[in-house]
Amino acid sequence: MTEERAEKFLELFNKGKEFTEELLRENQRLRYRIATLETGSTAGFDEEVQRLRAEVQQLTEENRRIGQRFKEVEEENKDFANRYIEVEEQNNNLANLYVASYQLHSTLDFREVIQIVQEIVINLIGAESFAILLLDEKTNELKTIASEGEDVMPGIESISTRLGDGIMGGVARTGESYYINQDMEGGKVTLEKPLAAVPLKIKEHVIGLVVIYKLLQQKDSFSAVDYELFSLLAAHAATAIFSSKLYSQSERKLNTIQSFLDLLTTTS
Q: Where are the alpha helices (DSSP H) in the chain?
């Protein structure tokens, strides 16, 4: 009886041992499986991370390209806006010059023509202090016939210089405009050295000058449009001044002749 119990106990022990060994083997197998799965998951995760990183880098590069293109378009828009403003300013100035030219050629009164030229120099060019000089071809002297801003540049109302002498005389001889686009502080602009001297020409024949000494406070310097306006103004103003001067001289001669004829008629 005792032997049977011992055998059964031994059998039961052996089965327990086998069961325990089986559990250990299964546990080891499960641990290996878990380790394998964990290793596989990490690799998959790393691949996903790499893919996402590649997408992020691609999107970043695309964003950079879009940002660069946006800046280029923005600069182009600014450039177009600036050009539009310049063109609009040119159109306005040309329209004003057309009106001014019409006014210049609408009268043959010498004083009215000179007054219109002064208004053009003030309103279109933006000059505060300037003088209009005419050339006396008999004496070859340039003399002031009209001026503005004598308080800024004393003496401009009585400028007198000979053809070929100094800056103004040189401009009158060569017919080439003179400019110094600089700040007038520090004595850089003087009576003999103006800010600008523009010849009044009929073709190549110079009849006088527009001499500028100071611009209006709201205008710092000459612009590209101003140089074009100077050229157009010089031609139109010269023609108007020359025509009105000839007309005035002819009218005076006509009046003199008429007075002489009236005197002869009365005497007869």
A: 2-104, 110-120, 166-174, 224-267
Q: Does residue 114 sit in helix, strand or coil?
A: helix
Q: In this structure, how many other beta carbons lie within 10 angstroms of the beta carbon of residue 144?
A: 19
- Token pair recorded at residue 7: 């055998």
| Closest by CA position to 231, among listed 82, 93, 88, 87 | 93
Per DSSP, the three-state class of 200 is strand
Contacts with 247 (C-beta within 8 Å, 6 or more apart), sequence order: 108, 110
Tell me the pLDDT tens digit for each residue of 169-187. 999 999 999 998 554 444 5
**Is the distance from CB of 208 to CB of 241 less than 8 angstroms?**
yes
- Report the alpha-carbon angle 251-256-259, nearest 5: 120
Q: How far is CA 79 from the centre of its chain?
A: 9
Give me the chain's average pLDDT, please: 80
φ and ψ at residue 214, rounded to 5 degrees: -155, 140
Residue pair 149/131 in contact (Cβ under 8 Å)? The answer is no
Q: What local confidence, expressed as pLDDT, does residue 193 receive?
A: 92
CA 213 from centre of chain: 24
Distance CA 133, CA 165 (A): 14
- DSSP 8-class letter at 180: -
> Using one digit for the tens of pLDDT, what is the confidence trace for 135-172?
998 999 999 999 999 998 999 999 999 999 999 999 99
Report the predicted TM-score, pTM, of the whole model to 2 decimal places: 0.63
